[in-house]
Design brief:
The protein is built from 14 helices and six strands. With about 325 residues, the protein is of the alpha/beta class. Strand 5, helix 5 and strand 6 form a beta-alpha-beta unit.
């Protein structure tokens, strides 16, 4: 059995990580894909507790197995030690450690890097493999050229206040829980997670709003006149144009997460969009949301209809 292993802080997991894992799976087709959230990493601290990063990873990578091996000890988590433990658990399997090609430059500085090469195969993924050929040949590491998405977890964190970031993590987790409950496919579940983690990314970047810049979003008069709704539209455009996410289901889920699609029959709205819409309202830190949260797990369309009515009353008060 071949086991691919991909580790990282995942603080939070984002669409770049997801695209990389899916591309590697397609290229090498391992029997098992292990995702390893870092525990106490030697060179990188994390802002989010380990247990929450594990939960995020479970919903970001529904086709993989998330392994909590690095959270079992408070000591520093070195890659060689993690690999040795995985080897003990799967003694008859071949291990394939997946890393970013940029890590090749300093691979010789990794703790016991020579033992890593003895213990497992290492595959470095790159957008432009030519740049790293010299390093790969030096260590006997395979280079895999795939369409890597340039993205960082820190960019997401830096775009939000601590409170807004916590909310976004909770929404992403709720998207995962609702996707699982309502049996969305892994592909749809990934989309719901991505939209959930990014839905408020421009919450504090939409103080100025020129409707002419968003003409391709078919804005309503109510949206143009209601500043509290602008961040969803600005966020959808930012995610599409700046982060390069072109998937219509993700963009629509972000764009309509505030008050939903006014006047559109529920059967014409996709499951991803419905889940993000409701997850934003019933995430774990939301007070007085127990009834709607329970309804969302029981009947998603009924929850959407109920919250639509609440939003209708809110909009009537605004105007």
């Amino acid at each position: 059995m071949e086991i691919a292993i991909f580790g990282g802080a995942f603080d939070p997991p984002h669409h770049g990580h997801i695209n990389l894992v899916n591309a590697v799976r397609t290229a090498i087709n391992p029997d098992k894909f292990l995702i390893i959230p870092t525990g106490n990493a030697p060179h990188k601290s994390t802002a989010t507790p380990f247990e929450k990063r594990v939960k995020l990873a479970e919903y970001a990578f529904p086709n993989c197995e998330v392994c909590e091996i690095e959270g079992q000890s408070e000591s520093v988590s070195y890659t060689i030690d993690t690999l040795a433990k995985i080897r003990d658990s799967y003694p008859n399997s071949s291990l394939n450690l997946v890393i970013g090609s940029d890590m090749l430059v300093d691979f010789h500085k990794w703790y016991k890097y020579e033992q890593i090469l003895d213990l497992c195969k290492v595959t470095a993924v790159a957008r432009d493999s030519f740049t790293y050929v010299e390093y790969a040949e030096r260590y006997g590491i395979e280079l895999l050229e795939i369409p890597i998405v340039e993205m960082s977890s820190s960019l997401i964190r830096e775009k939000m206040s601590e409170k807004r970031y916590t909310h976004s993590l909770n929404v992403a987790i709720m998207c995962g829980e609702l996707s699982k409950k309502h049996r969305l496919s892994p592909e749809k579940s990934e989309k719901a997670y991505i939209a959930g983690i990014l839905h408020d990314i421009m919450k504090y970047g939409s103080d100025v709003f020129d409707a002419a810049e968003y003409s391709d979003f078919a804005l309503t008069a109510v949206e143009i006149a209601t500043p509290k709704l602008w961040h969803a539209i600005v966020g959808a455009k930012y995610v599409r144009d700046s982060l390069g996410i072109r998937d219509a289901e993700i963009i629509d889920a972000i764009r309509f997460h505030t008050v939903g699609r006014r006047g559109t029959p529920h059967e014409q709205i996709g499951q991803v969009e419905k889940i993000v819409y409701i997850a934003d309202k019933v995430s774990s830190e939301r007070k007085n949301a127990d009834a709607l949260r329970s309804l969302a797990f029981e009947n998603l369309d009924a929850a959407v209809a109920e919250y639509d009515n609440e939003m209708k009353r809110w909009l009537e008060k605004c105007h």
